[in-house]
Predict the structure of tRNA(His) guanylyltransferase.
Amino acid sequence: MAKSKYEYVKEFETDDKMLRNVYVLVRIDGKGFHKFSAAHDFAKPNDVRGINLMNHAARCVMHELDDILIAFGESDEYSFLFRKSTDLYQRRESKIVSTVVSLFTSAYVYYWNDYFTDLKRPLYPPVFDGRAVLYPSEVEVKDYFAWRQADTHINNLFNTSFWALVEEGGLSPKAAEARLCGTDSKEKNEMLFTEFNTNYSKLPAMYRKGSVLLREQIPKDADKDAIIPTLPETLPGSKSAKVVPVPEATTTTTTKTTTTTTTLQQSGPDPISEPVSEATSGQSTPIIVNDPVALVVQEADMQEESKESRSNEGKKRSIDASEATEQDVAKGPTGNKNASEFKRMKKGVVIDHIDIIGEKFWTGRGAYIIAPEKKKKLRS
Protein backbone atom coordinates (compact mmCIF):
# COMPACT_ATOMS: atom_id res chain seq x y z
CA MET A 1 0.00 0.00 0.00
CA ALA A 2 1.35 3.41 -0.95
CA LYS A 3 2.23 5.77 1.85
CA SER A 4 0.02 8.79 2.36
CA LYS A 5 -0.57 11.40 5.01
CA TYR A 6 -3.88 9.72 5.85
CA GLU A 7 -2.33 6.43 6.83
CA TYR A 8 -2.16 7.46 10.48
CA VAL A 9 -5.81 6.41 10.89
CA LYS A 10 -4.64 2.78 11.03
CA GLU A 11 -3.24 3.53 14.48
CA PHE A 12 -6.81 3.60 15.80
CA GLU A 13 -7.32 -0.10 15.03
CA THR A 14 -7.39 -2.36 18.09
CA ASP A 15 -4.99 -5.28 18.28
CA ASP A 16 -7.33 -8.21 18.87
CA LYS A 17 -4.93 -11.11 18.39
CA MET A 18 -6.04 -13.99 20.58
CA LEU A 19 -3.82 -15.81 23.08
CA ARG A 20 -1.67 -18.54 21.58
CA ASN A 21 -1.64 -22.26 22.44
CA VAL A 22 -5.32 -22.36 23.43
CA TYR A 23 -8.35 -23.71 21.63
CA VAL A 24 -10.44 -21.17 19.73
CA LEU A 25 -14.18 -21.87 19.76
CA VAL A 26 -16.40 -19.85 17.44
CA ARG A 27 -20.16 -20.12 17.96
CA ILE A 28 -22.66 -18.65 15.53
CA ASP A 29 -26.30 -18.13 16.42
CA GLY A 30 -29.35 -17.14 14.41
CA LYS A 31 -30.76 -13.71 15.19
CA GLY A 32 -34.56 -13.55 15.41
CA PHE A 33 -35.03 -17.09 14.14
CA HIS A 34 -38.36 -17.54 15.91
CA LYS A 35 -39.74 -14.92 13.55
CA PHE A 36 -37.74 -16.25 10.61
CA SER A 37 -38.93 -19.85 11.05
CA ALA A 38 -42.55 -18.73 11.42
CA ALA A 39 -42.35 -16.58 8.29
CA HIS A 40 -40.98 -19.52 6.29
CA ASP A 41 -43.41 -22.06 7.74
CA PHE A 42 -40.85 -24.33 9.42
CA ALA A 43 -42.32 -27.59 10.69
CA LYS A 44 -42.66 -27.88 14.47
CA PRO A 45 -40.91 -28.95 16.60
CA ASN A 46 -38.19 -29.82 14.05
CA ASP A 47 -37.91 -29.05 10.35
CA VAL A 48 -35.63 -31.54 8.61
CA ARG A 49 -35.09 -29.11 5.72
CA GLY A 50 -33.87 -26.37 8.04
CA ILE A 51 -31.62 -28.73 9.98
CA ASN A 52 -29.99 -30.16 6.87
CA LEU A 53 -29.52 -26.68 5.42
CA MET A 54 -27.71 -25.67 8.62
CA ASN A 55 -25.56 -28.80 8.36
CA HIS A 56 -24.74 -28.04 4.72
CA ALA A 57 -23.70 -24.50 5.57
CA ALA A 58 -21.52 -25.75 8.43
CA ARG A 59 -19.85 -28.26 6.14
CA CYS A 60 -19.04 -25.44 3.71
CA VAL A 61 -17.29 -23.59 6.54
CA MET A 62 -15.22 -26.67 7.42
CA HIS A 63 -14.27 -27.20 3.77
CA GLU A 64 -13.00 -23.63 3.57
CA LEU A 65 -11.20 -23.51 6.94
CA ASP A 66 -8.95 -26.53 7.41
CA ASP A 67 -8.03 -25.63 10.99
CA ILE A 68 -11.52 -26.47 12.25
CA LEU A 69 -11.39 -29.85 13.97
CA ILE A 70 -15.05 -30.46 14.81
CA ALA A 71 -18.37 -28.67 14.57
CA PHE A 72 -21.59 -29.21 16.50
CA GLY A 73 -25.01 -27.88 15.57
CA GLU A 74 -28.45 -27.68 17.12
CA SER A 75 -31.48 -25.58 16.31
CA ASP A 76 -30.20 -22.27 14.87
CA GLU A 77 -26.67 -22.41 16.25
CA TYR A 78 -23.34 -24.00 15.31
CA SER A 79 -20.04 -24.28 17.17
CA PHE A 80 -16.66 -24.61 15.43
CA LEU A 81 -13.50 -25.67 17.27
CA PHE A 82 -10.15 -24.50 15.85
CA ARG A 83 -6.94 -26.33 16.64
CA LYS A 84 -4.65 -24.85 19.26
CA SER A 85 -1.95 -24.03 16.75
CA THR A 86 -4.14 -22.21 14.25
CA ASP A 87 -2.53 -19.10 12.85
CA LEU A 88 -5.47 -18.11 10.69
CA TYR A 89 -5.37 -14.33 10.19
CA GLN A 90 -2.59 -14.24 12.81
CA ARG A 91 -5.32 -15.27 15.31
CA ARG A 92 -7.14 -11.94 14.97
CA GLU A 93 -10.51 -12.44 16.64
CA SER A 94 -12.51 -10.06 14.47
CA LYS A 95 -11.21 -11.59 11.24
CA ILE A 96 -11.83 -15.19 12.30
CA VAL A 97 -15.31 -14.60 13.69
CA SER A 98 -16.44 -12.44 10.76
CA THR A 99 -15.13 -15.02 8.27
CA VAL A 100 -16.98 -17.90 9.92
CA VAL A 101 -20.22 -15.92 10.19
CA SER A 102 -20.11 -14.63 6.61
CA LEU A 103 -19.20 -18.05 5.18
CA PHE A 104 -22.01 -19.72 7.07
CA THR A 105 -24.61 -17.09 6.20
CA SER A 106 -23.72 -16.97 2.51
CA ALA A 107 -23.84 -20.78 2.25
CA TYR A 108 -27.20 -20.83 4.06
CA VAL A 109 -28.67 -18.48 1.47
CA TYR A 110 -26.83 -20.05 -1.49
CA TYR A 111 -28.13 -23.58 -0.80
CA TRP A 112 -31.56 -22.49 0.42
CA ASN A 113 -33.49 -23.65 -2.67
CA ASP A 114 -31.86 -27.09 -2.52
CA TYR A 115 -33.87 -27.80 0.61
CA PHE A 116 -36.80 -25.37 0.47
CA THR A 117 -37.70 -26.24 -3.11
CA ASP A 118 -40.97 -24.36 -3.09
CA LEU A 119 -39.25 -21.06 -2.37
CA LYS A 120 -36.45 -19.83 -4.63
CA ARG A 121 -34.91 -17.68 -1.91
CA PRO A 122 -35.72 -16.58 1.65
CA LEU A 123 -38.44 -13.97 2.05
CA TYR A 124 -35.86 -11.78 3.76
CA PRO A 125 -32.16 -12.19 4.62
CA PRO A 126 -31.36 -14.48 7.57
CA VAL A 127 -28.95 -13.03 10.14
CA PHE A 128 -26.36 -14.83 12.26
CA ASP A 129 -24.12 -13.38 14.95
CA GLY A 130 -20.87 -14.86 16.25
CA ARG A 131 -18.44 -14.84 19.14
CA ALA A 132 -15.09 -16.41 19.96
CA VAL A 133 -14.23 -18.10 23.25
CA LEU A 134 -10.81 -19.40 24.29
CA TYR A 135 -10.43 -22.68 26.17
CA PRO A 136 -7.07 -23.57 27.75
CA SER A 137 -7.28 -27.37 27.79
CA GLU A 138 -9.10 -30.47 26.58
CA VAL A 139 -11.14 -30.55 29.80
CA GLU A 140 -12.98 -27.34 28.96
CA VAL A 141 -13.39 -28.38 25.33
CA LYS A 142 -15.08 -31.66 26.30
CA ASP A 143 -17.29 -29.89 28.84
CA TYR A 144 -18.28 -27.26 26.29
CA PHE A 145 -19.56 -29.80 23.79
CA ALA A 146 -21.22 -31.78 26.59
CA TRP A 147 -23.00 -28.56 27.60
CA ARG A 148 -24.25 -27.90 24.08
CA GLN A 149 -25.47 -31.48 23.57
CA ALA A 150 -27.20 -31.49 26.97
CA ASP A 151 -28.86 -28.24 25.92
CA THR A 152 -29.98 -29.92 22.70
CA HIS A 153 -31.72 -32.68 24.67
CA ILE A 154 -33.37 -30.28 27.13
CA ASN A 155 -34.68 -27.95 24.43
CA ASN A 156 -35.84 -30.69 22.09
CA LEU A 157 -37.67 -32.61 24.81
CA PHE A 158 -39.49 -29.43 25.85
CA ASN A 159 -40.33 -28.45 22.26
CA THR A 160 -41.53 -31.97 21.40
CA SER A 161 -43.80 -31.97 24.46
CA PHE A 162 -45.00 -28.42 23.88
CA TRP A 163 -46.00 -28.93 20.23
CA ALA A 164 -47.60 -32.28 21.00
CA LEU A 165 -49.87 -30.51 23.48
CA VAL A 166 -50.64 -27.74 20.99
CA GLU A 167 -51.04 -29.67 17.74
CA GLU A 168 -52.38 -32.98 19.04
CA GLY A 169 -53.71 -32.07 22.45
CA GLY A 170 -55.59 -28.96 21.30
CA LEU A 171 -54.14 -26.68 23.97
CA SER A 172 -53.27 -23.06 23.35
CA PRO A 173 -49.58 -22.15 23.49
CA LYS A 174 -50.12 -20.42 26.83
CA ALA A 175 -51.96 -23.43 28.29
CA ALA A 176 -49.30 -25.84 26.99
CA GLU A 177 -46.54 -23.79 28.59
CA ALA A 178 -48.44 -23.76 31.89
CA ARG A 179 -48.90 -27.54 31.68
CA LEU A 180 -45.16 -28.10 31.27
CA CYS A 181 -44.08 -25.56 33.88
CA GLY A 182 -42.20 -27.31 36.69
CA THR A 183 -42.06 -30.74 35.00
CA ASP A 184 -38.81 -32.69 34.74
CA SER A 185 -37.58 -34.86 31.86
CA LYS A 186 -39.11 -38.04 33.34
CA GLU A 187 -42.54 -36.44 33.53
CA LYS A 188 -42.30 -35.10 29.97
CA ASN A 189 -41.30 -38.53 28.67
CA GLU A 190 -44.20 -40.13 30.53
CA MET A 191 -46.66 -37.58 29.15
CA LEU A 192 -45.49 -38.11 25.57
CA PHE A 193 -45.77 -41.88 25.91
CA THR A 194 -49.11 -42.14 27.72
CA GLU A 195 -50.98 -39.28 26.05
CA PHE A 196 -49.49 -39.18 22.56
CA ASN A 197 -48.04 -42.69 22.12
CA THR A 198 -44.60 -41.20 21.45
CA ASN A 199 -41.44 -42.91 22.67
CA TYR A 200 -39.03 -40.00 22.86
CA SER A 201 -35.95 -42.24 22.81
CA LYS A 202 -37.04 -43.58 19.41
CA LEU A 203 -37.20 -40.18 17.73
CA PRO A 204 -34.43 -39.50 15.17
CA ALA A 205 -31.07 -38.91 16.86
CA MET A 206 -30.64 -35.84 14.66
CA TYR A 207 -33.29 -34.12 16.78
CA ARG A 208 -32.26 -35.48 20.18
CA LYS A 209 -28.47 -35.30 19.90
CA GLY A 210 -27.74 -32.58 17.37
CA SER A 211 -25.34 -32.83 14.44
CA VAL A 212 -21.61 -33.55 14.72
CA LEU A 213 -19.27 -32.77 11.83
CA LEU A 214 -15.99 -34.71 11.86
CA ARG A 215 -12.96 -35.00 9.62
CA GLU A 216 -12.74 -38.60 8.44
CA GLN A 217 -11.79 -40.64 5.39
CA ILE A 218 -14.02 -40.47 2.31
CA PRO A 219 -13.50 -41.66 -1.29
CA LYS A 220 -10.96 -39.42 -2.99
CA ASP A 221 -13.14 -38.94 -6.06
CA ALA A 222 -16.00 -37.56 -3.96
CA ASP A 223 -16.82 -33.94 -4.66
CA LYS A 224 -16.03 -31.78 -1.63
CA ASP A 225 -19.52 -30.26 -1.81
CA ALA A 226 -21.24 -33.63 -2.12
CA ILE A 227 -23.73 -34.54 0.54
CA ILE A 228 -22.40 -37.83 1.89
CA PRO A 229 -25.00 -39.21 4.31
CA THR A 230 -23.74 -41.28 7.21
CA LEU A 231 -27.03 -42.57 8.60
CA PRO A 232 -30.36 -43.40 6.95
CA GLU A 233 -31.98 -40.64 8.98
CA THR A 234 -29.57 -37.97 7.71
CA LEU A 235 -30.28 -38.27 3.99
CA PRO A 236 -30.54 -34.59 3.10
CA GLY A 237 -33.12 -34.74 0.33
CA SER A 238 -31.39 -31.99 -1.59
CA LYS A 239 -32.59 -31.86 -5.19
CA SER A 240 -29.15 -30.94 -6.52
CA ALA A 241 -26.86 -32.73 -4.06
CA LYS A 242 -24.45 -35.14 -5.69
CA VAL A 243 -23.89 -38.50 -4.06
CA VAL A 244 -21.32 -41.18 -4.78
CA PRO A 245 -22.85 -44.27 -6.48
CA VAL A 246 -23.30 -47.31 -4.26
CA PRO A 247 -22.17 -50.71 -5.58
CA GLU A 248 -24.79 -53.45 -5.26
CA ALA A 249 -22.29 -55.53 -3.32
CA THR A 250 -22.10 -53.07 -0.46
CA THR A 251 -25.62 -51.79 0.10
CA THR A 252 -29.12 -51.87 -1.29
CA THR A 253 -30.40 -48.64 -2.78
CA THR A 254 -33.47 -47.22 -4.36
CA THR A 255 -33.26 -44.60 -7.07
CA LYS A 256 -35.21 -41.38 -7.22
CA THR A 257 -35.17 -39.40 -10.45
CA THR A 258 -35.95 -35.72 -10.82
CA THR A 259 -35.85 -33.47 -13.86
CA THR A 260 -32.51 -32.02 -12.86
CA THR A 261 -30.54 -34.80 -11.19
CA THR A 262 -30.58 -38.36 -9.90
CA THR A 263 -29.93 -39.15 -6.25
CA LEU A 264 -29.46 -42.48 -4.55
CA GLN A 265 -30.88 -43.12 -1.13
CA GLN A 266 -30.13 -45.98 1.17
CA SER A 267 -33.12 -48.22 1.72
CA GLY A 268 -34.45 -48.32 5.23
CA PRO A 269 -36.88 -46.56 7.51
CA ASP A 270 -38.16 -43.15 6.60
CA PRO A 271 -35.94 -40.57 8.37
CA ILE A 272 -38.87 -38.68 9.80
CA SER A 273 -41.93 -40.91 10.04
CA GLU A 274 -40.22 -44.03 11.37
CA PRO A 275 -37.87 -44.35 14.34
CA VAL A 276 -34.29 -45.41 13.71
CA SER A 277 -32.79 -47.96 16.06
CA GLU A 278 -29.42 -47.16 17.60
CA ALA A 279 -26.54 -49.27 18.81
CA THR A 280 -26.68 -50.13 22.47
CA SER A 281 -23.27 -48.59 22.95
CA GLY A 282 -24.71 -45.16 22.21
CA GLN A 283 -22.28 -44.62 19.33
CA SER A 284 -23.68 -45.20 15.87
CA THR A 285 -21.41 -46.42 13.10
CA PRO A 286 -21.30 -44.02 10.17
CA ILE A 287 -22.56 -45.36 6.85
CA ILE A 288 -20.91 -43.55 3.97
CA VAL A 289 -22.20 -43.93 0.45
CA ASN A 290 -19.80 -46.21 -1.45
CA ASP A 291 -18.41 -47.25 1.93
CA PRO A 292 -14.82 -48.36 1.26
CA VAL A 293 -14.69 -50.14 4.61
CA ALA A 294 -17.61 -52.40 3.73
CA LEU A 295 -15.95 -53.20 0.43
CA VAL A 296 -12.61 -54.02 2.04
CA VAL A 297 -14.27 -56.23 4.65
CA GLN A 298 -16.09 -58.06 1.88
CA GLU A 299 -12.78 -58.57 0.07
CA ALA A 300 -11.20 -59.86 3.27
CA ASP A 301 -13.91 -62.50 3.59
CA MET A 302 -13.33 -63.61 0.02
CA GLN A 303 -9.61 -63.77 0.63
CA GLU A 304 -10.08 -65.89 3.72
CA GLU A 305 -11.90 -68.48 1.65
CA SER A 306 -8.92 -68.61 -0.68
CA LYS A 307 -6.01 -69.76 1.51
CA GLU A 308 -3.54 -69.60 -1.36
CA SER A 309 -3.99 -65.88 -1.89
CA ARG A 310 -3.33 -65.19 1.81
CA SER A 311 -0.44 -67.57 2.41
CA ASN A 312 2.02 -64.72 2.89
CA GLU A 313 -0.05 -62.98 5.58
CA GLY A 314 0.24 -64.15 9.17
CA LYS A 315 -2.73 -62.39 10.69
CA LYS A 316 -6.02 -61.00 9.62
CA ARG A 317 -5.99 -57.27 10.18
CA SER A 318 -8.78 -55.31 11.76
CA ILE A 319 -9.96 -52.77 9.21
CA ASP A 320 -11.81 -49.54 9.90
CA ALA A 321 -12.30 -46.25 8.10
CA SER A 322 -9.02 -44.77 9.31
CA GLU A 323 -7.05 -47.88 8.21
CA ALA A 324 -8.60 -48.30 4.76
CA THR A 325 -5.46 -47.15 2.95
CA GLU A 326 -4.55 -47.58 -0.66
CA GLN A 327 -2.60 -50.78 0.09
CA ASP A 328 -5.51 -52.32 1.99
CA VAL A 329 -7.86 -51.97 -0.94
CA ALA A 330 -5.27 -52.87 -3.57
CA LYS A 331 -4.81 -56.31 -1.96
CA GLY A 332 -8.36 -57.30 -2.82
CA PRO A 333 -9.21 -60.02 -5.34
CA THR A 334 -8.24 -59.19 -8.89
CA GLY A 335 -11.66 -60.26 -10.08
CA ASN A 336 -13.40 -57.46 -8.17
CA LYS A 337 -13.97 -54.70 -10.72
CA ASN A 338 -14.96 -52.17 -8.07
CA ALA A 339 -11.70 -52.42 -6.11
CA SER A 340 -9.89 -49.79 -8.20
CA GLU A 341 -12.74 -47.38 -7.49
CA PHE A 342 -11.68 -47.13 -3.83
CA LYS A 343 -7.90 -47.18 -4.09
CA ARG A 344 -7.49 -43.62 -2.93
CA MET A 345 -8.94 -41.98 0.13
CA LYS A 346 -8.86 -38.44 1.46
CA LYS A 347 -9.89 -36.55 4.54
CA GLY A 348 -13.39 -35.26 4.23
CA VAL A 349 -16.16 -33.83 6.38
CA VAL A 350 -18.79 -36.36 7.47
CA ILE A 351 -21.87 -35.81 9.58
CA ASP A 352 -23.22 -37.98 12.36
CA HIS A 353 -25.65 -37.76 15.28
CA ILE A 354 -23.90 -39.44 18.19
CA ASP A 355 -23.22 -39.01 21.88
CA ILE A 356 -20.28 -36.71 22.56
CA ILE A 357 -20.85 -36.55 26.32
CA GLY A 358 -18.35 -38.77 28.12
CA GLU A 359 -14.98 -40.26 27.26
CA LYS A 360 -16.19 -42.89 24.80
CA PHE A 361 -16.34 -40.40 21.93
CA TRP A 362 -13.11 -38.58 22.85
CA THR A 363 -11.10 -41.80 23.01
CA GLY A 364 -12.69 -43.13 19.83
CA ARG A 365 -13.72 -41.15 16.77
CA GLY A 366 -12.93 -37.85 18.47
CA ALA A 367 -9.42 -38.82 19.58
CA TYR A 368 -7.81 -36.84 16.77
CA ILE A 369 -9.41 -33.63 18.07
CA ILE A 370 -7.46 -33.53 21.32
CA ALA A 371 -4.34 -35.35 20.11
CA PRO A 372 -1.06 -33.50 20.78
CA GLU A 373 -0.02 -31.27 17.90
CA LYS A 374 3.40 -30.91 16.39
CA LYS A 375 5.06 -27.69 17.44
CA LYS A 376 5.18 -25.10 14.71
CA LYS A 377 7.49 -22.15 14.38
CA LEU A 378 5.70 -18.96 15.29
CA ARG A 379 5.72 -16.09 12.86
CA SER A 380 7.85 -13.20 13.90
Remarks:
- The two ends are 21 Å apart (CA to CA).
